[in-house]
Amino acid sequence: MITVELRGLRLHAHHGVHAHEKEQGQEFLFDVELDVGDRGSSDRVEDAVDYSAVARVVKDVSDAHAYDLLEALASAVADELLARFEPTRLRVSVAKPSARPGDLDATPRVSVSRP
Q1: Which pairing describes strands 109-114 and 89-95: parallel, antiparallel, or unpaired?
Q2: Active-site residue set
Q3: Angle between helices 51-64 and 70-85 in degrees, nearest 10
Q4: pTM over the 0.85 mark
Q5: Tens of pLDDT, residues 51-92
Q6: Residue 33: beta bridge partners?
Q7: Average pLDDT over residues 95-101
Q8: Separation CA 46–CA 16 (nearest Å)
Q9: How far is Cα 82 from Cα 88, in angstroms, rounded to an integer?
């Protein structure tokens, strides 16, 4: 089993519940794991899942809509990756590093798995 991973994809986006989050935007960090069977083991690029294409899908989904919740954003990314690359399993994590829940030093993160 081959897993294509993309870690620490940084995107500036306008997601969040608060008006200033939607207006000013902030940084989000995405981690993606796609289990793709044996795709790519042939050493032929056309057989592999292109991680640049994976990154573009994440960016396109993030740019297409301003989500209130990390859960909805992660779910939308996961659904599009599933439709586009047909992995046997995937996991998408989204973190909001500038948020400080309860004014404490912590980074909120949401993860979504399919199927």
Answers
A1: antiparallel
A2: 96
A3: 140
A4: yes
A5: 999 999 999 999 999 999 999 999 999 999 999 999 999 999
A6: 5, 91
A7: 87
A8: 38
A9: 9
